[in-house]
Amino acid sequence: MAMQSEESADRPSASSPGDRLDSWKEIAAYLKCSERTVRRWEDEGLPIHRHTHKKKAGIYGYKAEIDAWWNNGRLRVQELEQSRTSQKTYRSVWLAITLVTAALAVGVVGRFAHRLRGAATPHHIESLAVLPLKNLSGDPAQDYFADGMTEQLTTDLGQISALRVISRTSAMRYKGPDKSLPEIARELHVDAVVEGSVERSGDQVRITAQLIDAANDKHLWAKSYERNLRDVLTLQDEVAQAIADEVRIKLTPQERIQLANAHPVKPAAHEAYLRGLYELSNMTFEGVKRTEQAIQYFQEAVALDPTDALAYAGLANAYYDQSTLLRAPLEVMPKAKAAAARAIEIDDSLAEAHASLGYVKLNFDWDWVGAEREFHRALELNPNLPRAHAGYAHYLLTLRRTDEAIQELHYAETLDPLLPESHVNLPFLLFNGRRYDEAIQAGQRGKDDRVLALSYAELGRRVEAIAAADRGLKSAQSPVIVAQIASAYALAGNKDRARTILSGIEAQAQKRYICGFNVACVYATLGDKEKAFTWLEKAYLARSD
């Protein structure tokens, strides 16, 4: 809409979001209104920065912040300006207009003061999600950097035990879809969301973050941080600390130490680490190429900086993710163990490294005590790490503590509804716990035809089992999943189909690693004990999980 005379304020013109406006005059020109107006709007939350070494006139502003302020509060500001104009025209109703204007002003000030000066939140916030930070560089090739910053901010906030923080994996699904914040919050079951942007120029990094009360789409706080890339970890810790303060979360002494424990990084090494993280985070179930690329980036990072604990933790994770599904455990598990141990040696506070070591001890070393210790340590450091909860659930299942395992995995799924099923998911855990009816319900929700086929077969529902197996076989790519579907066919009475599938798996075993345990299970289901024990022996020697 258009306002009258000097109070006119059309939508800000398009521009590079990284530009800085260095005076009231430039800000007024950008907003297409008078200097008097923008000076007045400072009281309404217009994001203005002041040079600490100059007097009041020494101000500047960033277009990205001003755009965000304008887009989120435009209607209220326009209503305010209309009311001010009306005061000049209708003197006879001056008192009534003043009251309306005051009410509007209170609303505007409340809206933006929440964002910029830390006013009290409308209700207690106990859960949040960090939505994908926007890449403002203008270069899609820099997406890895913005995604990496999103993940690291999520990790920092995840260290706060009083908050439930949704994992990056699930939050990233909202990178493209245009959904309202209340809708996103309902789907993720969170009280608040953090959104913002990342802009990198050379070795300078700026993050603009906003905390939003998700239920009513109300901005509570916003701020920009700018640092040299060397201090990017400190920058992220400051953002996490500010958000914790805003939602009035009381940090434990350990959490305060963790959020103040950042150290300078070597820019080239950290960039290689972020690239590796990007490849690993976007890996598909059969992602051989992406894990290999991730490993190369992490190796580059540790070569550039042998004290980079994050890169070693990423390396451990990448090696572990290749085990069984993509590579023989004996080929990659010792490398995963060495990388995790080195990360912990450098920085014992890295939850991701302890989780990786826990997985290795559980599935490769068969060290139950050691695995439990590492998972407990990971969850102590980051109670919002889904991978650690899933690993601990797997540990509990191994010890046949099924009820506890299910409870743990349920919580992991509240943190990450898209939790990868590389080793254990809720339907398969329920199946292994012999809770077949519950496994079917979970399998139907998750569209897990493998679990449906196995569970129906165990319950003697052969027609349904074979139908589910037929569906599952069409999409299955991993020999592990294919072998489990073959077992379902055998259990359901279609042994010829099971043997045909088994022949194909054994042919693949001549060319690549195949988990012997899953092949043994098929032979056992077919009643061929001799071949079952032969493959179990192979699995034992290969330390299959």
What do you see in this structure?
With 545 residues, this protein is of the alpha/beta class. Helix content is 60%, strand content 9%. A hairpin with a 2-residue loop joins strand 7 and strand 8. Helix 10 runs antiparallel to helix 11 (288-304), helix 15 runs antiparallel to helix 16 and helix 16 (386-398) packs antiparallel against helix 17 (402-415). It is elongated and about 90 Å long.
Oligomer: single chain
Number of helices: 25
Rg calculated over all Cα atoms: 28 Å
**Per DSSP, what share of the residues sits in E-state strands of 2 or more residues?**
5-15%
Low-confidence stretches: 1-17, 52-57, 85-122
Describe the structure in brief:
The protein is an alpha/beta fold and 545 residues long. It contains 25 helices and 9 strands.
Protein topology:
Blueprint: E1 20-21, H1 24-31, H2 35-41, E2 49-50, E3 59-62, H3 63-89, H4 94-117, E4 127-130, E5 134-135, H5 143-158, E6 164-165, H6 168-171, H7 181-188, E7 192-201, E8 204-213, E9 218-228, H8 232-246, H9 253-258, H10 267-281, H11 288-304, H12 309-322, H13 329-346, H14 351-365, H15 368-381, H16 386-398, H17 402-415, H18 426-432, H19 436-446, H20 449-458, H21 462-475, H22 479-491, H23 495-508, H24 516-526, H25 529-542
